[in-house]
Amino acid sequence: MIIHTQEPILEVHDLTVSYSRKPVLWGIDFTLPSGSIAGIVGPNGAGKSTLLKTIMGLIPPSSGFIKLFGRPLEEIRQRVSYVPQRESVDWDFPVSVLDVVLMGRYGKVGLLRNTGARDRSIALECLDKVGMSAFAKRQISQLSGGQQQRVFLARALAQEADIYFMDEPFAGVDAATEQAIIGLLREMAAADKTIVVVHHDLQSARSYFDWIILLNMHLVAAGPTEQVFTEEMVQQAYGGRLNLLSQVGDVMEKRAFPSREN
Amino acid sequence: MQHFIDFFSFTDPNVRYVVLGNVLLSASAAMVGVFILLQKKALVGDAVSHAVLPGICAAFLFSGSKNTAFMLVGAFITGWLALITIDYIATKSKLKKDAAIGLVLSVFFGAGMVMMTYIQQSGNAAQSGLDHFIFGKAATLIGTDLVIFSVLAAVLLVAVGLFFKAFALVAFDRPYAEALGYPVRKLDLLLTSLTVLAVVTGITAVGVVLMAAMLVTPGAAARYWTDNIRRMVAIAVAFGVFAGLAGAYISYTAPAMPTGPWMVVVSSIIAFVSFFFAPKKGIVPKLYTQRKNQRIIAEENTLKMFYHLGERNSHFKGKRDLSELIHTRQVNETLLKTTLRRLATKQLLIAHGQQWALTDVGYQKAARVVRLHRLWELYLTQYMDIAADHVHDDAETIEHILTPELERELEHQLGYPKKDPHNTEIPKI
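^ inputs. structure came back:
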């Protein structure tokens, strides 16, 4: 069940993504309205993070296209922000919390210029929003998991974007941080920012998100939570892997077959 | 001393050249090295250093003379080729990166050695001294070389300065840099080129075999002294410069001594010292902290013995002998003796021949430790639902850690209790 929106802020059109020729996402096609908090939900190995990375241009799609604000990503990067998985970086890196948040300003200041006093005050403001201003000078290796996630969030906020893509922001964080983050996301959505979150907890998904993208290598459902997040749809997404789909993928990998004829 | 003055007055033009060359090369290598280290590409640096040898030989074969400019170009080309080959093998073949690096290093270096042997046997008179490139010979530095090195070092300095922010970002969080629209691949290419440049700057003095050490060791040592990337670069450069100066000085005082290897030795010593003695991160300070904690634990436990004995007859400051103390608690006798002596010098205990008693201050301290122990036991039973007979061991550790602020908070949360879970009294201070 896929419910489209009339004026999409994000349009994913017939997207297929492969790792070394083996398709991991098949024909994904959905749209997202502005000001929504959308959850990408699905079992392990469903391709949730892959979808996010493809939207962010980190993985090239085998076919299909993605449009943000009706334009390709390269033209509107300034309006898009990304929060990678917390585990993806080395937290022993010799930088302070403030340094990490300032990285959020790097897109705005450009390749060669340095961040200035204004960037600094924005970064401090964002740290304050996530309740981490007391930690600005702290070296990042001294942070707990929840604090690391807050710092990543502050960095994304510092980009002052219109749409935010977050990869598992609730994974391995304490309950207080989870509540703080969801509170912040709601505030952002109220200010007409759009937020897309990769999430793996079905329990909280219903209350957190007003739009759900149910994924299991293919798109099971996409639309407003109350309409698409039904027992039946969840069953379909989690009811075992689509065996035939992954078998076909294996054959394509083995025979080095392209995912489209040309 | 005369040597020292002669050397550091830089009146001898030869000394000037060698020192300047060394400082330039080690500073620029250390600077680039920090980023190589942070991107976890230290081995790549080693491979590149070895891979410039065939380029040098090819340049000699091509020009028929030891023209520095030609050789640097040759070195740059093969060094770069080696990096591209590593990347290609790692991404396009079943081999993993470590295997690719090992392969490229040995193949390129082997090819270089073959070419060098061929040149040496060819009878070309100009070839003498070409083998200096293997282990380096700073004394062969001359004025025109220095001009080239200065230019290369300046290029490195400017490039690293300009792209500092971008290099740090890519090293910390590559996907994020990509998502921001940073040209990550081009930045990789640039850092790669800078690495090759730094190696090329160093080979005349240090040689291809040891050059990797000048890239990586100053940065590795600097990491022990700071958690700030800018300071880390500054410290690495300072270490590099010091190693460069020291190497030049040693070979000046003892002319038989090679400069390059000495630079590497000095820089290794710096790394070694940092590894063991850097405050906080070094091994020795860490051991010291552990030892200090062990002492605190032993002292506080001993004070507690006196308190526990005193509790039996409400005579806390009574004199106790060794056997009496040992009965209260399993403890190593020699450790107990030394701890008692230490407590006596700290005036927490008074010695009366073979007996000891608590002083006023000692009594206060002992009471506080017991108090913290019992407060924590109470906290565990009340707030964490742990059975009363399971809380003792945990409290044995926590009693040494709790700060006065935590103590107040604990007391407040528990409602200023009088008795612990075993119904013994919590001492007041």
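Chain B has a mean pLDDT of 87. The first helix of chain B runs from residue 2 to 9.
thumbs up if we can close this ticket
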